[in-house]
Design a protein that fits this description.
Blueprint: E1 26-32, H1 35-48, H2 54-60, E2 67-73, E3 79-85, E4 88-93, E5 99-101, H3 103-108, E6 116-119, H4 124-128, E7 133-134, E8 138-139, E9 157-162, E10 170-174, H5 178-183, E11 189-196, H6 200-203, H7 223-237, H8 242-255, H9 262-276, H10 293-307, E12 316-317, H11 318-328, H12 344-353, E13 358-364, E14 367-373, H13 379-383, H14 388-404, E15 414-420, E16 436-438, H15 439-452, E17 456-457, E18 460-462, H16 465-470, E19 480-481, H17 483-493, E20 495-501, E21 509-512, E22 518-525, E23 528-534, H18 543-554, E24 558-561, H19 564-570, E25 574-578, H20 582-592, E26 600-602
Parallel strand pairs: 6-9, 22-26
Antiparallel strand pairs: 1-2, 2-3, 3-4, 4-5, 6-8, 7-11, 9-10, 10-11, 12-14, 13-14, 15-16, 15-20, 17-18, 18-19, 20-21, 22-23, 23-25, 24-25
Helix pairs in contact: 7-8, 15-17
Length: 603
């Protein structure tokens, strides 16, 4: 096998190799490494990591001890070679023939990788679950200048340590150059994790814990730092005056990192942790909404998967799921353009490939849907806890929603059909003004008129001049009519209207004409089914709330159409829901809103 002699410092950033050992792998072959190949490996290892001396190389790749090569197939289908000594994996070579040390080797030679970063221990679980190390999570010098990271190159290999421990817990690659780090304001993704303590590669070894040794002088180590340290030591040995030494120290700080005094170490650590931990990706202790949109998306996604995924009707459209995420916390703007994913489909692909939470398929050409959720025994979801900031935000949003809503919950109104009097019936109803009556009131007043004028003949009514007005001369005086005919003709002569009485309104709402029913209509729109709901405004429904119920309950898109065209065509606002949601909507109206059947019309 040909092994590249290019050092990790020139490796370009490749997203596809993120945490290659987070998922289990398959072993394809297991062989002893020949002596000739061992010699080539020592040469390559020395070239890539020049800090290793000859004794270290002979210890890592012994001549006579057990030293094996294992060919592994990763979960993404890539083949890699892992080299182990006495069944302890020491380094591996990927498909592009780059050589990387394992944490076991770094625990023997913690400074073999020249670029080293420290982060807080709270971040470790996030990294193990597949998260990238964000720049705000790094422990850095108190003062950052344009020269601090000038030596850092995009794609450069680095080691990662926790807090003040010298020994690394993982390796990763830089996602940007040092200049870009400074210009970004130290925000965004900083390091892509390749291999980390407790992943599946670590589990193939002795499963030992990381050793601990306190980092006394520095929280950030780079190649430039070591160069400046050597330069400073030479200056001291030559007894250069204090002024020159001070200038050298200032130059060191501005170009590489902060050198920390042992006496000042404790105070600086406290200050650094106080300042930096506000930006650490620690969702359990952080009460502030993260600045990173990636973290916000991941948090809400995990929250929905934990709490609501079992209620979803699958498959669910990606666009619908994004709407559900937006509705999860009312008022929280999920701006995908400000995230590193840019598109929601890219975010979901990440959750599928890295966290193995969902499965995506194209249910139709160009239509991406979630077909299943893997929430049982999922490590990422098992470790997820709803952060304090999200709990607080949900609570605050719920309180705001309650304030917006009326004191009492929605109650379907009492609906009264009314009839308005006119000149044809005023005398019959014994009134000189235009008034409205219920049907039973009209019948009672007509009966009272007939009895007062002694017009009852054999259970029928004898017509007089007043009654004849109702029949438009079709009946003559002394003709007999039935009670039903008289009452029906009187009501037909009057103009119909209706009255809605709400418990939370002081005055009833009265409108002319027959009361319209809530109409549910399923139509074909662009070769797709669409459900239209009309006349909800008549009954004082909160259309936005009703849309939210549809989105969360039926897992489909639902919007309010309040366009001028809709108001002109349908005499009011509409709700447009994706697909045929007739059964779901009728169930909502009857069970949750207590709408009687006679006020629901399905077409």
């Amino acid at each position: 096998m040909i092994i590249s002699d290019r050092g990790p410092a020139v490796i370009m950033y490749r997203y596809c190799i993120v945490i290659m050992f987070r998922k289990d792998f398959k072993s394809k072959s297991h062989t002893q490494v020949k002596s000739s190949e061992r010699k080539k490996l020592r040469t390559t290892l020395q070239h890539v990591y020049p800090s290793l001396d000859e004794n270290a190389l002979n210890s890592i790749i012994p001549s006579k001890e057990d030293f094996t090569s294992i060919k592994l197939m990763l979960s993404n289908g890539d083949d890699i070679y892992v080299y182990s000594k006495n069944k302890i994996p020491l380094f591996f070579i990927d498909k592009d023939e780059y050589l990387y040390p394992t944490v076991y080797l770094l625990w023997e030679y913690p400074n073999m990788i020249q670029l080293k970063f420290h982060t807080h221990k709270e971040v470790f679980l996030k990294l193990l679950n597949g998260a990238e190390l964000m720049l705000p999570g790094l422990i850095l010098p108190p003062t950052i200048t344009p020269f601090t990271f000038r030596h850092v190159k995009k794609g450069q290999l680095c080691s990662i340590c926790l807090d003040d421990n010298v020994y690394p817990i993982g390796i990763g690659q830089m996602t940007m150059d040092g200049d870009d780090m400074y210009m970004s304001g130290m925000k965004g993704k900083g390091i892509v994790i390749l291999h980390i303590y407790q992943d599946y590669l670590w589990q193939t070894g002795t499963k030992t814990e990381p050793p601990y040794e306190k980092q006394i002088e520095q929280l950030f180590i780079s190649e430039d730092t070591q160069r400046h340290q050597s330069k400073q030591t030479t200056t001291e040995e030559n007894s250069v005056d204090d002024q020159v030494q001070q200038e050298e120290n200032d130059n060191l700080i501005s170009q590489a990192c902060a050198t920390i005094n042992i006496d000042d170490k404790e105070q600086l650590e406290n200050d650094t942790v106080t300042l930096e931990k506000t930006n650490v990706i620690d969702l359990e202790s952080n009460n502030q909404i993260p600045e990173s949109m990636d973290e916000i998306l991941d948090t809400i996604f995990c929250y929905i998967c934990q709490r609501k995924s079992k209620t979803f009707e699958l498959p669910i459209l990606v666009s619908t799921f994004f709407t559900i995420m937006q509705d999860c916390v009312n008022g929280l703007d999920l701006d995908l353009k400000s995230s590193s994913y840019k598109k929601f489909s890219k975010f979901l692909e990440y959750q599928q490939e890295i966290n193995d939470i969902i499965h995506l398929e194209e249910t139709k050409k160009g239509v991406l849907s979630i077909t299943s959720f893997n929430i049982s025994n999922n490590e990422h979801l098992e470790r997820f806890r709803t952060p304090i900031w999200l709990k607080s935000y949900i609570k605050q949003s719920n309180e705001i929603e309650k304030q917006k809503q009326p004191i009492s919950t929605y109650t379907f109104p009492v609906v009264n059909e009314l009839w308005r009097s006119n000149s044809h019936v005023n005398d019959l109803l014994n009134t000189k003004q235009i008034r409205t009556y219920r049907a039973d009131e009209v019948r009672q007043l007509i009966r009272q008129y007939v009895l007062e004028h002694d017009l009852v003949v054999d259970k029928q009514v004898k017509c007089d001049s007043t009654i004849c007005k109702l029949f438009k001369k079709l009946k003559a005086e002394n003709d007999l009519v039935s009670w039903n005919e008289l009452n029906g003709t009187a009501l037909n002569t009057m103009a119909q209207c209706y009255e809605l009485i709400f418990p939370y309104r002081e005055q009833p709402i009265r409108m002319n004409g027959q009361i319209p029913s809530i109409e549910i209509q399923v139509i074909d729109h662009n070769k797709k089914k669409q459900t239209i709901i009309k006349n909800l405004d008549v009954y004082d429904f909160d259309l936005n709330e009703f849309c939210k119920r549809i989105r969360q309950g039926a897992n489909v898109s639902a919007v309010v159409d309040d366009s001028i065209e809709a108001k002109r065509k349908y005499n009011g606002r509409l709700i447009l829901a994706q697909g045929n949601q007739k059964l779901f909507i009728v169930k909502q109206l009857k069970e949750n809103y207590k709408v009687p059947n006679k006020f629901i019309s399905e077409t």
